[in-house]
Input
Amino acid sequence: MKRRPTFLISVMIFGFAFFYIPILSMIVYSFNASRLATVWGGFSTKWYVALFTNDKVIDALILSLKIALVSATISTILGTMSGIVLARYTKFRGRTLFSGLVTAPLIMPEVITGISLLIFFILLGNWIGWPASRGFTTITLAHITFSAVFVTTIVHARMLQADRAIEEAAMDLGSRPWQVMFDITLPVISPAILSGWLLAFTISLDDVVITAFTTGPGSTTLPLLIWSKVKLGVTPDINALATLMVVTVGLGVVAAGIIMNRAEKRRQAEERLAFQRND
Output
C-alpha cells in the first residue's frame, strides 16, 4: 500500500490557500458597509450600487471590453495561422527568424515592449501622420502584438499532438487543402483556438504596463482606473469592482470548460463512428 505524499499535499494546500484566501477576503470586504476597506462595519451592498452609477467606471469598462474583444479576435486569427505554419511547415526560408519573433514577446519585459511601442507610434505619427493620437487604436495594436504570441504557442502545441493521418486520408479521398483545413484541422484544434482566445481576452483585459505606455487622454481602461484609485488607497468600491471581475472570469472559465469538454466528446464519438463504418 502506497503512502500518501503528506508533505506534497501540505505544500499544495498551503499554496492554494496563499493564493485564494486574499481573493476570498477581498470578496467578503466588498460587502463592507464601512468606508475603510480593512475595518468591518457591517454587511452592505451600497458599494455595488455606487459602482454601477459611476460613469468613469462604466466608460472604462466598456473601453476595456471593446479593446479586449477586438484584440483577442485578431490575435486568435493571427496566432492560429502562425501555429499551423510552425507545426505543418518545418522547412521554409526564415523559419528560425519567424520562430524567434514569435517567442520574443514571451521573454521580453513588458516595460521594454511598452517603451518600444510608444516610440514606434510617435515616430509613425511624425512620418505619416498616423496615429494622430494615442487611444483605442494604439492600445488594441499593442495588445495584439503580445496576445497573438500566446495563441500561437497554444495552437502550435495542439497541432503537434494532432494526427496528420486523418488529414492525409482526407486528401487521398479527394479533398482539397482548404477543405481539409476547414473540415478537419480547425475542428480538431478548436479547443486550443477557444483557449487561446480566452487567454488573449484575459491578458488584454487586465494589462496595465503596456497599456500605460500606449494610451492617451480620454482613453483610460479599467485596469488603469483601478491602478489610479489604488494609489490613493484601497476602498470598498475597488473590492466590489475586483469581485465582479473575478466572478465574470470564473464563469467564463467554467463555460469554456463545459464547451470544450462537449466538443471533445463529440469529436471522439465521431471518430469512433467513422472507424466503425470503415470496419
Observations:
- The CA atoms of residues 69 and 201 lie 6 Å apart.
- The mean pLDDT is 87.
- The domain at 54-233 is CATH 1.10.3720.10 (MetI-like fold).
- DSSP finds eleven helices and no strands in the chain.
